[in-house]
Amino acid sequence: MRKLLTILLFFVLQVSLAQNSVNTKNYHQSFKELIFKNPDSALYYIKKLKLEKDVANSFFSSYYYHQNLGQYYFFTAKLDSSEWHYKKAYDISILKGIDSLIIDSNIWLANHEYFKGESKNSILRYENILEHSKKANYLEGIASAYSRFAGVEPDLNKKMNLYLKIDSLYTNNNTQSSLLARVKGYIAEIYLDAKGNNDLAKNYIEQCFTISKEVDYPPGEYEANRLLIKLAVQENNFNEAIQLYNHLLNQGNKIGDPRQFLFLQ
């Protein structure tokens, strides 16, 4: 009888752990879907993750609680709290040794160093991120590092080559992401401002907009519309520029000013 009870308890525990794992995944996904649209609504799922963390004390609920809260605090301009939670997420991921999660948290720590004006430290951390990502064959980490290097590269041709390298990485892997949408926008602006090639600029703006829609990334749509206004002004299409500007204002009012997100992955 005791043996039977032990077996039953074991299976109940396994079912409970599996359910917690499913809940954690769903809460994290729901957070990701809302954070760019409505950070306060996304906070609801962080609270759900905290409950999971407190009850089950599982690795993933603890990791995503701190990782997501770091992102929430960043968007609400509480940078010290944001960095603290990203450091917690990083420490948790190190204990488990999951490369992609270690890299994701480390990217944000590098970003925070950049925001604090610690550019050298940020670049050094990104160099470590690139090395780690290559060993782990982690596309997002590789692309994020190249994007940061491009952002601080003064030589326009080298900057463009890095962005095109990111574009090729995603194309070769048949993958899309919010970072790729931003990179399409960066390339478009270079063609618009420095290269004087409005046709190519428009092509990349359209790609930025399309990818942003497909991956549900409102800041990318906002950036694409901003670039379309710039293009319309350059081509003396002032009525179109005014219409696009009004649309941009409306879009910004709905989700806040998303330009603050454009650096982010």
Please supply descriptive tags for the structure shown above:
265 residues; mainly alpha; 12 helices; 84% helix; globular; disordered C terminus; TPR-like_helical_dom_sf; Tetratricopeptide repeat-containing protein; signal
Task: Please provide a brief summary of the model.
Keywords: Signal. This is Tetratricopeptide repeat-containing protein. With 265 residues, the protein is mainly α.
The total of beta strands comes to: 0
| Beta-strand residue fraction | under 5%
Largest sheet: none
* H/I helix tally: 12
Global geometry:
globular
What is the H/E order? HHHHHHHHHHHH
| Secondary structure category | mainly alpha
In terms of per-residue confidence, which ranges show pLDDT below 50 for 5 or more consecutive residues? 4-19, 257-265
Oligomer: single chain
How far is the N terminus from the C terminus?
55 Å
Helix content: over 70%
Radius of gyration: 21 Å
Average pLDDT taken over every residue: 88
